[in-house]
Specification:
alpha/beta; binds NADPH dihydro-nicotinamide-adenine-dinucleotide phosphate; NADP_OxRdtase_dom; AKR
Length: about 280
C-alpha cells in the first residue's frame, strides 16, 4: 500500500517515509540524493527534528522544488516546549527547512513544561497556518490520555514511537489506543536503528526466506510487517539512494497471513513493559 489516511488530518500520507536522524552531514550530497530518490519513489513523508543537527538543512536542499509533494514533519524538544518556545522553535525549523509551513509538528518526548502550554503553542501555530497539524512522540497511553483531555478529540494527528521487529511493546496498548482515537501511529527505528537481525541468525533466516518468496529484501519484509496494521506508518532512515528505493519497494510486499504468523512467532511481542521503550 502506498498511502493511507493520517489520523484525523484528512490527508493521505505515504505509509513508508524517510527518517533523518544521524544523517551524515559530511556526506550531505549522498544524503540529499537519497532523500530525493526516496521522494521520487513515493516516500514523501519526511521526518526531521530541531534536535537532528544538520538534518533540517539537508532536507531543505533535498525537497527544493518538491515541497508540494512532501508531508514534512519536524519536532520541538521538550525543553523548548513552552507556548512561546514552541513558536520560536517552529520559526527556526521553518527557516532551516526553507519553507513556510510544516505538515505536522511534534513534541519530541514528554517533558516537564505543562502539556497545556505546549498544546496552546501548537494551536497558535495551527491557526497562523505555520503548521497544518500537530502530534506527539514517545507518548504512552497515560500521556496520550492527558493530551486528549487537554486538546479534545481529533486534534492529536499522530504519535511517533519506537517500533521494530524486536521491539513490539506498542502493540499492547499504544496501537489500540491510537486506532480507537483516530491518531496515526508512526513507528520509528524500523531497522532497530541499524541493529537489524543478522542474516545468519534464525530470525534473519526467516526474513530471508520470506523475502525470497516475494523477490524482495529482508528489510522490505520488515517494513511490510511493521505497516501491516491500519493507521500505521514507518520512517526508515538511509543515506543511500539505492536503499531508499529498496525501502520504497516494501509498499508492494503483501505478506500472507501465514507469513505474518511466522514473523509474529519469530519476533514475539513479549510482555507489556512498565514504561514505553524509547531511544
Ligand atoms: P532505522 O531503524 O531507520 O535504521 C537506520 C539504519 O539502517 C542506518 O544504519 C541505515 O544505514 C540502515 N538502512 C536503511 N535502509 C537500509 C536497507 N534498505 N538495507 C540495509 N540497511 C539499511 O534507524 P533510525 O533510528 O534512524 O530511525 C528512523 C527515523 O526515525 C530516524 O531517522 C528519525 O527520523 C526517527 N526517529 C525518531 C525518534 C523519536 O524519538 N521520535 C527516535 C529515533 C528515530 P545507511 O544510512 O548507511 O543506509
Amino acid at each position: 500500500m502506498d498511502a493511507r489516511g493520517f489520523g484525523s488530518t484528512g490527508q493521505r500520507v505515504s505509509v513508508i517515509g524517510q527518517g533523518t536522524w544521524r544523517i551524515d552531514g559530511s556526506a550531505s550530497a549522498d544524503a540529499v540524493a537519497a532523500l530525493r530518490a526516496g521522494v521520487d519513489a513515493g516516500l514523501t513523508h519526511i521526518d526531521t527534528a530541531e534536535m537532528y543537527g544538520d538534518a533540517e538543512a539537508i532536507v531543505a536542499e533535498a525537497i527544493e522544488g518538491l515541497r508540494e509533494e512532501v508531508f514534512l514533519v519536524s519536532k520541538v524538544v521538550p525543553g523548548n516546549a513552552t507556548r512561546r518556545g514552541v513558536a520560536r522553535s517552529c520559526e527556526q525549523s521553518l527557516r532551516r527547512l526553507r519553507t513556510d509551513r510544516l505538515d505536522c509538528y511534534l513534541l519530541h518526548w514528554p517533558g516537564s513544561h505543562p502539556l497545556e502550554e505546549t498544546i496552546a503553542g501548537f494551536e497558535d501555530l495551527r491557526r497562523a497556518g505555520k503548521i497544518l497539524s500537530w502530534g506527539v512522540s514517545n507518548f504512552d497511553v497515560d500521556d496520550l490520555e492527558a493530551a486528549l483531555r487537554i486538546a479534545g478529540p481529533y486534534r492529536i494527528a499522530c504519535n511517533q514511537v519506537l517500533y521494530h521487529l524486536r521491539e513490539r511493546s506498542i502493540e499492547h496498548a499504544v496501537i489500540p489506543w491510537c486506532a480507537a482515537n483516530g491518531v496515526a501511529l508512526v513507528g520509528y527505528s524500523p531497522f532497530g536503528s541499524g541493529d537489524f537481525p543478522n542474516p545468519a541468525s534464525p530470525g534473519g533466516q526467516v526474513l530471508a526466506r520470506i523475502a525470497e518468496a516475494h523477490a524482495t529484501s529482508p528489510h522490505a519484509v520488515a517494513l511490510a510487517f511493521l505497516t501491516r496494521l491500519d493507521g500505521t506508518f514507518s520512517i526508515p532512515k538511509t543515506g543511500r539512494a539505492l536503499r531508499a528505493l529498496e525501502n520504497a519497494s516494501a509498499r508492494d510486499v503483501a505478506l500472507t497471513e501465514d507469513e505474518i504468523a511466522t514473523l509474529d512467532a519469530q519476533f514475539p511481542r513479549g510482555r507489556r513493559p512498565s514504561s514505553l521503550p524509547m531511544l
